[in-house]
Amino acid sequence: MAIDLSSLAMINEGKTKIIFGNPDDAKTVFMVFKDDITAGDGAKHDVIEGKALVDWSTNRNIFEYLNRKGVRTHYMESPQEKVSLVKKLDFKINLEVVTRRVAAGSILKWGNVEEGTWYDPLITQFHYKDDPLHDPMLDDTYVEYIIRAKGGGEVYADMRSINVEVFEHLETAFAHFGIQLVDFKLEYGLIDGKATVIDEITGGSFRLWPYAKENPNLTGPNVLSELDPKGRLDKDTYRMGEDLARVQSKFQQIQQITEKFKDL
Fold first, then answer.
1. Helices (H), 99-227
2. 195: closest CA among 95, 94, 70, 72?
3. Residue 10: what are its φ and ψ, rounded to 5°?
4. How confident is the model at residue 43 (pLDDT cuts 50, 70, 90)?
5. What are the backbone dihedrals phi and psi of residue 57, each rounded to the nearest 5 degrees, phi first?
6. pTM above the 0.85 mark?
7. Which residue intervals of 28-139 are DSSP H helices?
8. What is the C-alpha separation between 151 and 260, in angstroms, rounded?
9. What is the pLDDT of residue 205?
10. Rounded CA gap, 163 and 171, in Å?
C-alpha cells in the first residue's frame, strides 16, 4: 500500500530531505528525499529533476550493504520510491565525522598537504555542524581529551571507530569497480543510548575517483598519478560548476555501481 505523505505530520525539513512521523510506530520515521542539491553550506542551490529517486536508491543500496556487514545504522527499509523507513533518534549529534584516505578538498587549503597524499592509517576528524561558521573542525587533541577524560567520551570513540569501519567496507566495495573512495562524511545520533549512523549516504556524502590504470599502485606517499580525479563521480562536479545534466549523470553512475553491492 502506498504511503500517503500528505496525511503525515512533518517533523523536519532539511536541504535534501523531509522527515515525517509514522502514526503506526512512534519509534520510526519516514525519510523522504528531495530533488534539491546544495553546496557551500547552502549558498549554492539548485533542483535537479529525478535526483530524489537516484539518491534514494543509492542510499538504500549502501545502507542495506552496511546493515549486512553488521554496522549499527538507523536504516530499516525503503517501503516505496523516494521514502526510507528509519529508526527515530533519541538525540541527534550535531557533528559531521569525516574520514580521509586521499588528500582532497578543504584539507588542501588548511592542512598544508599535497593533493593525492595517501593516508594509511585513515584519518578521521570531527566538524561542528554550523553553516555560517562553515562547519569548523574540532581540535584533535581536545577530541582525544574528551574520549579519555570527559563523560560521554565513549560516544566520540564509537563514532570514530564506526567511521573507519564504514569507510573500509565501502572502500573495498567500490574497489571492485575500479574506484577509490577518497573521503566521506557521516552523521550520527543516539538510538537506545548508542552512537548510530544516520541521515543519508549518497553522491553528496563522499568523493569517488576512478583508477587511472588497471591495478594501480596505492602504496606510495602520493597516489594522484594512479587515480583519475577528472573522472570524479561525486558532488564536486556540482561544486566546480558542471552543468546539472552532467551532475545528474554522475549521481546515476554511483547509483548503478551501488546497485551491484548486493552481489558482494
1. 107-110, 140-149, 153-175
2. 72
3. -80, 130
4. confident
5. -70, -45
6. yes
7. 51-68, 107-110
8. 42
9. 97
10. 12
**DSSP class of 220:** S
User: Interhelix angle for 140-149 vs 153-175, to 10°?
Assistant: 120
Kindly state the cell numbers that stand for 124: 578521521
Query: Which residue shows C-alpha cell 574540532?
Result: 138
**pLDDT grade for 27, boundaries at 50, 70 and 90:** very high
Say which amino acid occupies 201.
I
* Domains of the chain, each with CATH number or no CATH: 5-87 (3.30.200.20), 91-244 (3.30.470.20)
DSSP code of residue 214:
S
Side chain identity, residue 155: V
Question: Cell 574520549 belongs to which residue?
Answer: 147
Report yes or no: 104 and 115 within 8 Å, Cβ to Cβ: yes
Grid coordinates in use for 99?
574520514
- Contact call for residues 51 and 44 (beta carbons, < 8 A): no
pLDDT tens digits, 115-127: 999 999 999 999 9
For helices 51-68 and 244-259, give the axis angle rounded to 10 degrees: 30
**Distance in angstroms (rounded) separating the CA atoms of residues 167 and 58:** 16
C-alpha cell at 208: 569517488
pLDDT at 1: 63
Residue type, 15: K
Q: Is residue 167 within 8 Å of 102, Cβ to Cβ?
A: no
CB 136 within 8 A of CB 130: yes
Mean pLDDT over each residue of the chain, to the nearest integer: 96
Q: Which residues are CB-contacts of 40 (< 8 A; sequence separation ≥ 6)?
A: 239
What is the number of alpha carbons within 13 Å of residue 150 lying toward its C-beta? 11
